[in-house]
Amino acid sequence: MPIYWEKALRYLLQLDENQLRELVNARATWRAFTEAAREAKQVKGSMVWKSAGGRTYLLRKSATGTQKSLGPRSAETEAMHASFQQRKLRAQERLKAIKRRLEEQRKLNRLYRVGRTPNIVVRILAALEAAGLADKFMVVGTHAIYAYETAAGVLADPGALATRDLDLLFDARQRLAFASTLKKGDTASLIGVLQKADPSFRVMRDQLQTAVNDDGFEVDVIRRTAVDGDPHPMPMSDDEDDFWAVQVDQGEKIASARKFEHLVVSANGEMATMRTVHPLDFIRLKRELAAKRGRDPQKAPKDRLQAQVVQQIWDQYLAAMDPGSSPG
């Protein structure tokens, strides 16, 4: 390994006191926002009274327009209606207030340079969350390091982070839930969800697993090797312009790895939750990849560098936060 890499591996830049303070505040604000958003989602839609056949019924209308009768008008359904209206009002007011606080925190994040996750990555994660699809994907590869360094309150060696593509591992085991959720949303395709983050994203015609935007940033959708009746090839929707997830050798190992979830902050202060693999599994998988016969000789050194950088983050910062894990 080149000597300059050896020096980099011994160096993690810790955020200063002001940055660490704002990172703590950002985490607290983000937790409050996600909880408020969850509460607001529970009372999404409406409850209305409707007359039919000489009787009045309470209907629950979903955000997508489907209706369900909750029964004829009675003391019980009137109480149900009143309770729903109160919960909905409280949830909306709380979410509105926390969104104002979130914007204030975004400005502070930017002022103090709390984060450096690429803006487009955070916006993609936010778009997946808004579409209800975030739990169907994991960020794998280089960008996972942003979650680890944010959790540790450090900045990792820039050489380990240089990349212009984001790998999203689709959990093929959730393909039916994914399709159902996608159909309930306001866009019928995965590429449509990404276009919420950046309208210029388009799936490449000669690489259907890859979308690229006008800045040349790429998003790859990958999956495990087909097993247990997985459809193959696997289009992500019925839209002919959508992604087709591509199989990767390590897909099953990644999908079955321990999970790690943490806030990430972009250079402009925006926040999102990143779901990825546990740092120890990242280290193991990167070392396996670097040692794999036939691995591109230009990529293997970076695999080793990333494994060692994350090992340093783990040893110096994260291991104490997760005493149940061992470095084996």
Written overview of the protein:
The structure is a single chain. The protein is α+β, with helices and mostly antiparallel strands and 328 residues long. It folds into 2 domains: 1-114; 116-321, Beta Polymerase, domain 2 (2-Layer Sandwich). It contains 10 helices and 14 strands. The strands form 4 sheets. Strands 5, 7, 8, 9, 10, 11 and 12 form a 7-stranded mixed β-sheet that branches. A 3-stranded antiparallel β-sheet has the order 2-3-4, with helices on one face. A hairpin with a 2-residue loop joins strand 8 and strand 9 (207-212). The chain is globular and about 80 Å long. It starts with a helix and ends in a 10-residue tail after the last helix. Pfam families: NTP_transf_8 (PF12281).
Comma- or semicolon-separated keywords:
single chain; 328 residues; alpha+beta; Beta Polymerase, domain 2; 2 domains; 7-stranded mixed sheet; 3-stranded antiparallel sheet; 10 helices; 45% helix; globular; Nucleotidyltransferase-like domain-containing protein; NTP_transf_8_dom
